[in-house]
Design a protein that fits this description.
This protein has about 375 residues and is of the alpha/beta class. It is built from 16 helices and 13 strands.
Length: about 375
Amino acid sequence: MTMPVEKLPEEVLALIFRDLPLRDRAVAARVCKAWAAAATSSAVWHDTSVSCDCELEYLLPPYLSICLDHVHNLRLEYEPSKEPSRRAATDLLTALAGRSPGLRGLRLECRGEKPLFDAGHDILGAVRAVCGGAHLLRHLDLRRLPYTLDDTVVLRAARDCPELRSLFLDNHALVDSVRPSSVLELLEACPQLCALGLHLASLSRPALELLAAPHRAPLALLALRCASPEDARAPPLPDEAWAALSCRHPGLEVELELEPVLPNEAVTRILQPAVPVAVLRLNLSGDTVGPVRFAARHYAETLRVLEVRASASTELHTALEELAARCAGLREIHCFCVVRPSVLDAFRAHCPRLRSYTLKLKREPHPWQPTLVR
């Protein structure tokens, strides 16, 4: 006999409710006492995704606020150009700062364009408040925020979040305002940090040396975005420092993203042979052939993903074929220009682990979709 839904155990109801959108959870909580208990239980709210549409501002008091103590990992999405969405996100973060000391992970994502001259003071102030109240925070991801990030966020995390395991600040802002000294203070305060995303200008030789210290937890990922004038002027990080870091952390993967603001000489300074580059994204306004050939010669053992945005040329096609012949461990190749058939043939022949590629033999409507290898 089928059990009536109102008789289902709380544990079963919680499994159902945790997959519901926020709005539907609120509706379920008003059905009866049993559903309310299940809809507000820890199992439902441990990992929570919230999209701050206009309805959220009516859910925060009192329904959502009573559940904040149960939230351990939060993914929060909002639209900065829509005031209700933005206000709801700020209110939720502010409430979280005072109600959820057990928060372990926070990921913020912006949807749509931000208003002109919007510095995001309200959102960033709320993020700092969360860091100040969530002393067990382990993961903070701000890559999808469009604002200039500065020392205040980093220093607050260094002061109040000693358990931090991952921090991503490599967003798409046009200016980098995080000083290397602040990153150094963060690394000294958070010895368990194993994944870090920064703009290149925020990294320094002392930081690489500290990351290679024997007392630190194994470093798994270092993501570096090179897209601002500060990145273009950053002093070179010596090859020997990278070699020492790779020796200390043999499983380290480095992601490099090079943007058009970089002149050729800056690219040459950044691409050091000892960097264990696993992901390389090239979107340069200058020479792209040279970096592709450099990757083929020096990153053959480590490179797993290559993304190239450049104009088609015979030299680029030849460089890609050379890279395919050397990088047998490559898993993804995405080239956003038309290539000759021999380029596609080279990757198919020499890269047995290839699982996805964008290699178009003729122009297609954008956006170009990758081909999955089965």
